[in-house]
Amino acid sequence: MSADRDVIIVGSGLVGCAYARILAERAPALRIGMLEAGPRLTGTAGVNVRNETDAATRARYQLASEGPQAAADPEHRAEYSARPGTHRVRRRRPGSPDQDDMPDASGSTNVGGMGAHWTCACPSPYGSERIAFIKDAEWAELEAEAARLLHVSTAGFEPTAGARTALAGLAAAFDAGRPRGRQVQPMPLACTPRPGASPRWSGADTVLGPLASGTHDTFELRPDTVVRRILHSGGGATGVEIAGRDGARAEVRARVVVVAADALRTPQLLWASGIRPPALGRYLNDQPQVVAAVSVNLPDAGPGRGSGAGQVELNYGQRTGDQRDLLAGVAWVPFIDGLHPFHGQVMQLDASPVDLGVEDPSGVVVGLGWFCAKDIRAEDRLDFDGDELDAFGLPAIRIRYRLTDRDRAQIEAAMTQQRRAAEALGGFIPRGEPRLLPAGTSLHYQGTVRMGEADDGTSVCDPASAVWGLPNLYVGGNGVIPTATACNPTLTSVALAVRAARAIAESLGA
Hints:
With 510 residues, the chain is of the alpha+beta class.
């Protein structure tokens, strides 16, 4: 990328792509450059690899996303990769503690970022999860625009007997006392429904839209390019310094710089660039995650029913004999302050990001995932070591993170709610009882470049996502979210990127 740009975007994940798409729509003449440290996986930029049906090809894409450490030391790959398609911030030795200092903190390095691997859940934040200084009417419009970019739908899975039975059981257990719109319901998913088949999962290509073709005159995406620092002087960003695969360095000038490199690497790059507001890297939120596996009691269709595939479903929740009855889709038990301060998702096995150890179930087996809202503390933070560099030549990240007494109480309460769900649906499978996953497993890290109303030392960026004191440097991603949340953060982060991109377009005279 030799020519200067109007806007440089660091990171090619869903949020960076949302910035690019909105800027291109609102200000078509802007010259936009996107820089990605990792490789391009597929012909079309940023495709979700879960759409790949060939297991060997999908595994190859995942390995390419796991960073140089796993490739250089394949014998110990499991110590570098918490799950396929990701790489840990620091190598994890077997037997190390599960919770202290977030041992499974991970990211993906590839075109599309985590958008090439995510499970596409897009619930709306509610109550205390919401950002109070963004008014309801504006938030509703921003959320709708984010849903447009992500192709959010509740029709990703057909309403099979398994899905209906799961929803009915969960509703009976959890719907009492819930406000309108927060009852148990199908999970909003970023996908394009395909009748009779699994949906096409959204990736960064979905968000980029026409920009993903690679033929757009004013947009260029450059993979295998590490941004080493943000150039800045006189109270503003002036561009970035980059290093290619061959190590050669260059500078690219820009009128605006956007850093959307994830909640760990965005503050890392700011720190490496000498941009170090007091809140940088602090208020780290991980969302403790409790999982379980449950066998769903699916009612028999009764005499004269339930024999032969392809029969029409006759009654609510009854099995027709079609193997598709065993599909449960993804159900949502929404967060509500006080009543259910957790985000619950109930997923059929092929949609679950966590291997629950069940193969070829003979009935409906679902994974329960309950996310807790972390007790937000400035002490939970990232530190950066200027004397030790990571595999990309940037200051090594160290994490300081602990569960509080309140967190542990919330985790126990989440397990109780999962037992309630299991009783309503059927029962835990062997070894399927609730368990807390290692810290960092959620991949929903937030708060490290958090948004605030005032430059008072407790936030990194203003309500438009511009870094305090550097009005043409913007940040994006889950790290911007300042609240304690339990729900999946992607819809919120994309909505905030929409808001910021509109502000940039206006500032550059769209």
